[in-house]
Amino acid sequence: MPGTTGFVPSDAEVASVLAWFERYDALAAALDYEGMAELAVFPLNEVTDDGKGQGKAEQLDRSAYLAQMEQVMGGGGDVKLETTRTPHFLSASLVFVISDGTMTYDGFTQPIRYGDLLLKVDGNWKFQTMVQGGWG
């Protein structure tokens, strides 16, 4: 079994994760839901809570993910995300990324924090789990 404890990524490995997010963000800005789905492994895990301490987790297939993105992002409006991403590598092929920042929607700004689990599949990063509080 390959050792994973104490894995330290190279600068190139960190850069590859950050470049993945740049691509995903560009697809999101273009409202390219199909392109976003291409960067995922389905079923996709979605973990959240209702803000009252009640957590929940569910799995989405591709069609449910596409429908959700259309509902959440399809309304248009002026949306601006500013984030700092911090990758936490579990191994060379598993990384959990914490994103901290702000989201401005039609002039209203709020802080955001969420996490994504990315897997390296056939040499490419794909997201498999999204974690963010308050969506329940």
SSE arrangement:
Blueprint: H1 11-29, H2 33-38, E1 40-49, E2 55-60, H3 62-73, E3 79-91, E4 94-105, E5 108-121, E6 124-131
Parallel strand pairs: 1-6
Antiparallel strand pairs: 1-2, 3-4, 4-5, 5-6
Q: Can you offer a commentary on this structure?
A:
- There is one protein chain.
- The relative contact order is 0.21.
- The protein has a single domain (11-131), classed as Roll (Nuclear Transport Factor 2, Chain: A), CATH 3.10.450.
- Helices cover 27% and strands 46% of the residues.
- The chain is of the alpha+beta class and 136 residues long.
- A six-stranded mixed β-sheet has the order 2-1-6-5-4-3.
- InterPro entries: NTF2-like_dom_sf (IPR032710).
- This is SnoaL-like protein.
List keywords for this structure.
alpha+beta; single chain; SnoaL-like protein; Nuclear Transport Factor 2, Chain: A; six-stranded mixed sheet; 136 residues; NTF2-like_dom_sf
Structural class: alpha+beta
Number of domains: 1
What coarse outline follows from CA principal-axis ratios? globular
Taking pLDDT < 50 over at least 5 consecutive residues as the criterion, the unreliable ranges are none
Question: What profile does the largest beta sheet have?
Answer: 6 strands, mixed
Task: Name the helicity range.
Answer: 25-40%
